[in-house]
Amino acid sequence: MATKAEGGNWSGWLRRIAACTLLILVATGSFWFSPAPLTDDEYCGTYLHLGPHAGFTANCDGFVYMEDARHPAHLLEPGEVRQSRPLFILLGTVVGYPATWAVQGLQRAGLLPEQVMQKLPGKYQPLLGFYIGYVLLNYAVLLAALLLFRHLYYRLTSGQGRRWVLAALLVFLVSNQITKAFFWTVHQQMFTFLVPLLLLYVLLQLRESPQWRARLPGLAVLGGLLALVYGSFVLGLPVLLYEAWRQQKAKSGAVLAVRLALLIGLFALPTILWIGLLKLRGVAYYNHEAEAYGQLVWLRASWQQPLPAFLKLATHNLRRFLQTLPAVGPFLVVALGLTGWLRVQRPTQSGHPLPQLGALLLLQLVFLALLGYYKERLTFTLVPLLLLVLAIVLARLPAQRSTGWAVGMAALGWHLWQVLRYGPFS
């Protein structure tokens, strides 16, 4: 049910969408004027110049996404790089062809001069519509994350959260190294913001709504489908398994085991069917992330080694993961610091949402540490939940104008730093 702070009518939704859209365009558009890369070795892709002092990087991974969206049958070819994420490619097809037809219509009408098209790199000219389509997907995913964050903000603060705090926290979601490097290009990194927020929403719904608890099997299938869009949606499975355990823990172990096995099977069903379709075509399923980067599968391979070798590799990977934590360091320090201070100052008001947030943060930490492929942009998935921790803490502080100024100035300073600093580009 929508809270009073949120509102539930269509005009309210349109205002929120318009406000979030304006924030996205202003924040990400300002990145066009960030310092350009000095050498080609500092990024993977093509730097597209919009003017003498403006431009952005088209990521090198984008060309494969666009070509596959243009020809989805490529997914059925052996060793296809994006074969493990077929539904994201099909989403690109769904939005890419209408965008291509629109571009062609503008060209025929003379509204898109040929000189503009000729300024694009040759390989991007026939794919412009698909490029635009994927950027629209970026916008849709980021917009969904902002709207969901807003809902969770008021929900976790019992409708007492202040608007200026929400506005400041949204700036951190829209202005950061992920949106700077990936919003205006073809990639999947906008899911960095949506996945953890969606997991928290599902967890809260399962805890509070009997109707949602009755839909666990359907949620398992839906989660399995989303995992074919973006791999991190696999974290939905432990959330569903935990809720099933919580419901069935008073029953016999056999009943619980059957229930958990059913959910695992339903979650895996979309991937099993996709692999089966490939086999019918005589194609072996290829997971580029596992094959090229050893994501998660390194655990199975290294476990077969002698214990000293396994411990050495595990320690090495853990060290590499810890080196990515500075990407979320400011958020982690402030969230933990304010939470600890609040518990000392007002111990009776340690709110109930924090355990759920803490559990999901721990789940993400374990997943990232075990992944075997470590990048700061992956570790940034911790930030949306850390911002919600800050929201809960700030909502319990006395309403003072100085606090509002501090949060607002921190958000503005953060954005200016993101715009002015050099990189990242990919």
From TrEMBL:
The keyword Transmembrane applies. The keyword Membrane applies. Keywords: Membrane, Transmembrane, Transmembrane helix. It comes from the Bacteria. The chain crosses the membrane at residues 12-33, 127-152, 164-183, 190-207, 219-242, 254-277, 321-342, 354-374, 380-397. Signal peptide: none annotated. This is Glycosyltransferase RgtA/B/C/D-like domain-containing protein. It comes from Hymenobacter swuensis DY53.
